[in-house]
Design brief:
The protein is α+β, with helices and mostly antiparallel strands. Helix content is about 40%, strand content about 20%. Helix 4 links the parallel strand 12 and strand 13. The chain is elongated.
């Protein structure tokens, strides 16, 4: 039976929402956290394994130094306190994709603690998200349920386990309860996740591709009558792997919980799952408390000692942070705050910058990524990065326009061909014969034909009324299959008018 929902506007008037995010970021190290097994997305199932990642008896873990350095860099970016001593612990629970029956994580002695992240909202407001910890742990494998709808376990007749992901290094960033979010709860969560994604990419520690599971979040939501009351019972929606999914999860949970509280029903402390197809959350299991995991220090791993000297070494390697980079690019590209915000909201900053690096002007790059390409992404309901067009392709189109080989119409047709999977811009141009007509004789004949077919327009142009010029240009473009240069057409028309 579908959950009863309260109108969102009414829910946030009657109750004070408190949210929390536990974000798992998969690190882009070459090998796993505790063994030399290679890490590669999309590999043949169960081929990236060692005795350690399979949890075989007698196998001993050895910490990946690069993963620890990545964690320190992220801690610095999140204004965390980097603990001199941190410790790995065993988090005990059974699940088929966890070959050891415990996860190696950090509990009471994490590498990073007590930080914050300032995020910018759509209207320019800065909101500070408090961070409790950013600790290191290894990932589980992946279950695939066969026979159930959409790969779910319900209705499946058997399941397959791929252990390639087991042991891949993660950093889990856990926020403190985020208060004062009100009606902007979903917006704040989305802005936080996007900012976090930009940071880990800037640090070059993760690909942060949510659709590939490199970055995913557990979303906590609770309601209370007012900010002066204790926190309400929270739900935790697990492994949401899209920005929109996170935002919609928060909105849905606020509406669902408000309706239950309004009817005097209790909120269960449980895990839930976001269903993209129905745009709803569904209950899972009753949420386990930390005590039930029986955390204890892993006896096979010594404590990590992170010296002040090593932290300073990591500080020296820190790159330009996203906000500094945005401010610099906004100045270099001569953009208004609104124009830059449009780029950020479209998730196009990296793509535009790469297009500029490939030789395009910023204005041209911005026009394509926020125009034709963005419309194609929206129509297919995918991200810009998932489309079969690269910054190098867009830069090539801009070069063809600048050289006079393509006009605007042909350029749009070329981009459409690339998006349709027909190849590079050069291949699309060659395949369809897209090229501006450079034969002035052919253009002049098309102009003469257009003027002869529209004598009334010709007379208006001769009298100095330039408004109907578009009629002639359109006729010439039609005659040349859009391959005439509009400027050349206008020049010839004016010579005929004055002559």
């Amino acid at each position: 039976m579908a959950d009863k929902l309260m109108k969102f506007s009414e829910a946030v008037k009657k109750y004070d929402p408190v949210i929390g995010l536990e974000t798992h970021v998969e690190l882009s190290t070459n090998t796993k956290l505790f063994c030399p097994a290679h890490v590669e997305f999309g590999g043949e199932p169960n081929t990236q394994l060692t005795p350690v990642s399979l949890g075989l008896p007698g196998s001993l873990p050895v910490v990946n130094k690069a993963a620890v350095d990545y964690a320190i860099k992220l801690g610095l970016a999140l204004h965390c306190e980097i603990n001199e001593w941190s410790q790995f612990a065993r988090k005990n629970y059974f699940y088929p994709d966890m070959p050891r029956d415990y996860q190696i994580s950090q509990y009471d002695k994490p590498t990073n603690g007590n930080g914050y992240l300032d995020v910018e909202l759509d209207d320019g407001t800065i909101f500070r998200v408090p961070i409790e910890r950013a600790h290191i742990e290894d990932d589980a494998g992946k279950n695939t349920h066969i026979g159930g709808a959409d790969g779910r376990i319900e209705g499946a007749d058997h399941s397959l386990v791929d252990y390639n992901r087991a042991g891949v290094p993660l950093i889990e960033i856990v926020t403190k309860p985020i208060e004062g979010v009100g009606a902007r709860a979903a917006e704040i969560a989305g802005a936080y996740m996007r900012t976090l994604r930009d940071i880990v990419r800037a640090l070059n520690i993760s690909h942060a591709r949510m659709e590939q599971g490199n970055m995913r979040a557990d979303v906590n939501v609770s309601l209370r009558p007012s900010p002066d009351d204790p926190y309400g019972t929270r739900s935790e929606t697990k492994n949401v792997n899209s920005f929109r999914g996170i935002e919609k999860t928060i909105t849905y949970e606020i509406r669902r919980q408000a309706a239950r509280l309004d009817e005097g029903k209790e909120i269960l402390q449980e895990t839930r799952h976001w269903d993209e197809s129905t745009q709803t959350t569904a209950g899972g299991r009753v949420k386990t408390d930390a005590d039930d995991y029986r955390y204890f220090p892993d006896p096979d791993l010594v404590m990590l000692h992170i010296t002040k000297e090593h932290i300073e070494e990591m500080k020296a390697q820190m790159p330009e942070m996203p906000r500094e980079r945005r401010n610099r690019l906004q100045k270099e590209w001569n953009l208004t705050d609104l124009q830059m915000r449009d780029i950020i909201n479209a998730d196009a900053l990296d793509l535009i910058e790469e297009t500029v690096k490939a030789g395009a002007k910023a204005a041209g790059a911005r026009k394509w990524w926020l125009g034709e390409i963005s419309r194609a992404a929206n129509a297919k309901e995918v991200s810009l990065e998932e489309l079969p067009i690269t910054p190098a392709d867009v830069a090539e189109v801009e070069k063809l326009i600048a050289s006079g080989k393509l006009n605007d119409k042909l350029a749009k047709q070329t981009v459409a061909g690339v998006l349709a999977g027909e190849g590079t811009p050069a291949e699309v141009v060659k395949k369809h014969g897209y090229q501006v007509v450079e034969d002035t004789g052919a253009i002049e004949k098309a102009v003469d034909d257009a003027l002869a077919a529209n004598p009334d327009v010709f007379e208006k142009l001769k009298s100095g009324n330039m408004k109907p010029m578009g009629v002639i240009i359109g006729a010439v473009m039609k005659a040349t299959r859009g391959q005439a240069d509009a400027k050349a057409v206008t020049k010839i028309v004016m010579s005929k008018v004055k002559g």
